[in-house]
Amino acid sequence: MTPIYLDYQATTPLAPEAAEAMRPWLDEKFANPHSAHRLGREAAAAVEVAREQVSAALQAGKEGGRLFFTSGATEAINWALKGALSRLPDSRRRVVTLATEHAAVLDTVEWLGRMGVEVDVLPVGPDGLVDLDLAASRIDDRTGLVAAMLVNNEIGVVQPVAQLAELARDCGALFLCDAVQGLGRVPLPLDSCDLVAVTAHKVHGPKGVGALWVRDGVILDPLLHGGGQEGGIRSGTLSPALCAGLGAAAKLLSERAEEDHAHVVKLAETARARMQGWILNGSPVERYAGNLNIRRTGVDAARLIADVRQVAFSAGSACASGSGRTSHVLRAIGLDDAEARSSIRLGFGRYTKEDELILALDLINEAAERQLSLAA
Ligand code: PLP
Predict the structure, then answer these.
(1) What is the percent of the chain with per-residue pLDDT over 90, rounded to a whole number?
(2) Which of 68, 169, 195, 287 has its CA at 20 to 30 Å from residue 363's CA atom?
């Protein structure tokens, strides 16, 4: 039996419409989109359609900006941070970010720190949210860039991105939003952002493609040098198939926003009701409903994942769970090691059926009870 998939924050199932949109560009329409001949121009046109679709999902219509395709959000974030910082004057070589950001941000700013950039990582409260007064006291006129995510990938909390972006703007700093987990699900205040990173595989598109939206007037140095594609600042041959897949996935996000939202809220209610005895990690209010990060005293999450083989779910983030380290996000909200090790992340969404969710939760609960009774 294929396991019931409850790991939507790690990646999401490919939408059939996205697979369909990709197929011709993998088969007969294989031309290089940067070639000048007719076949190349056809492929380039498909890339431009996809660019429009992703821009529409970002609601970028009213904003002056440009969307660049990348290999995913890790590249988009690296490019935004390194590309912007290398252009900032010495008086602005300071970055402010949050302790619960994805490693794509935290490891990149750590690297920037080694390159002489001043890095300030703000703590979050037990609810996983940044304190805006604290943020206001730390974002200053020496700050060149502020980076904050919309929805946290581990605990699902929604940061006050609009307010953080305003603080950045008031001080003349750029604002980068990692909107990977929030795109199409939680309102993104694009009007307050200068740089926005997204990726296809978290929104039912293919792996290996993402995008960076860049506000007009924001100057980035390239991260990838080479053939001068994407207006000369992101070299590398684009994959029309991957771009078309991302475009189709983005179009669906826009078309199905209400339906997807209602479905996820209903699933979340079912899940919360069934997981009595588990404690929610992070804010119960400021959160995306499709992420349930919960802990149960005495439960060993790693063992639970091994025991419940019929369900694909996660302990903390997919990256952290492979490393053996407890999650930096769970530590940032004040959990001790034992609490972090008893935490699981259940992620569900568009293609999760309620009956399979119930079955999965029952299997998890039974296995947890077994662990607890053996330990008693
Ligand atoms: N940011 C967040 C919040 C994520 O969840 C992820 C994926 O794990 C990334 C960035 C990196 O995205 P990608 O897998 O496209 O490199």
Answers:
(1) 95
(2) 287
Tell me: the pLDDT tens digits for 198-239? 999 999 999 999 999 999 999 999 999 999 999 999 999 999
251, 55, 318: which is closest to 260 by C-alpha? Answer: 251
Distance, in Å, from the CA atom of 1 to the CA atom of 301, rounded to the nearest integer, reads 22
Give the residue, by CA position, lying nearest to ligand 1 atom 16.
Answer: 74
Catalogue the active-site residues. Answer: 319
The CATH class of the 16-254 domain is: alpha beta
Please give the sequence-ordered ranges of beta strands (E in DSSP) within the chain, or none if there are none. 4-5, 65-70, 94-98, 118-122, 145-149, 174-178, 195-199, 210-215, 279-280, 291-295, 311-312, 343-347
> Ligand 1: which residue has its CA nearest to atom 7?
10
pLDDT at 316: 63
pLDDT band at 195 (very low <50, low <70, confident <90, very high): very high
pLDDT at 317: 46
Q: How many angstroms is it from 41 CA to the middle of ligand 1?
A: 31
d(C-alpha 319, C-alpha 115), whole Å: 25
Atom number of ligand 1 nearest to Cα 181: 3
User: Could you state, in order of their start, the residue ranges of all structural domains in the chain?
Assistant: 4-12+256-375, 16-254
Give the CA diameter of the chain. Answer: 72
Query: Please, what's the b/e burial string for 225-237 (b: 16 or more CB within 10 A of its CB; e: otherwise)?
Result: eeeebbeebbebe
Bridge partners, 199 (sequence order): 210
Cα(375) to ligand 1 centroid in Å equals 37
The answer to whether the predicted template modeling score (pTM) of the entire model surpasses 0.70 is yes
Q: What is the CATH number of domain 4-12+256-375?
A: 3.90.1150.10
Spatial contact of 143 and 171, defined as CB atoms under 8 Å apart: yes
Q: Which residues line ligand 1 (CB under 6 A)?
A: 72-74, 102, 104, 149, 153, 178, 180-181, 199, 210
Residue 10 CA to ligand 1 centre (angstroms): 8
